Amino acid sequence: MYSLVFNVPVSHVESVKSAIFAVGGGSMDGYENCCWQVLGEGQFKPGSSSNPFLGTIGEIHKEEEYRVEMAIAKDVKDECVQALKKSHPYEVVPYYLVEIIL
């Protein structure tokens, strides 16, 4: 089992979660579409070689984002990460994948 943790702008939180749920993420012990999320503020400064979804190159940008955490089974780990990267609007997707020892 793994914990997938990622930040996503408010505008895309539901579509990104849905993409991951569609490949089996957030399922455990008979429950589906399980996650925990909290609203916060992300900050970044796009560099000269970036192609930002939000913000302006060379300027600090702050954006309301959700931090979403969900359990994913080992056998769907790769599919969940691919779904996250494909559905997320950011050029560089901020995420953590942590193995859970039960």
Q: Please give the alpha-carbon distance between the first and last residues.
A: 8 Å
Q: Which residue ranges are poorly predicted, with pLDDT under 50 across at least 5 consecutive positions?
A: none
Percent helix: 10-25%
**Class derived from helix and strand content:** alpha+beta
Q: In the CATH hierarchy, what is the architecture at level 2? A: 2-Layer Sandwich
The main β sheet shows up as: 4 strands, antiparallel
What is the highest CATH level, the class?
Alpha Beta
Count of discrete structural domains: 1
Strands, count: 4
The ordered H/E elements are EHEEHE
Order of strands across the widest beta sheet?
A: 2-3-1-4
User: C-alpha Rg, in Å?
Assistant: 14 Å
- What fraction of the residues are assigned to beta strands by DSSP? 25-35%
- CATH topology description: Alpha-Beta Plaits
Attribute tags:
102 residues; alpha+beta; Alpha-Beta Plaits; 4-stranded antiparallel β-sheet; 2 helices; 4 strands
What is the secondary structure topology, with strand pairs?
Elements: E1 2-9, H1 13-22, E2 36-44, E3 61-72, H2 77-87, E4 95-99
Antiparallel strand pairs: 1-3, 1-4, 2-3
Helix pairs in contact: 1-2
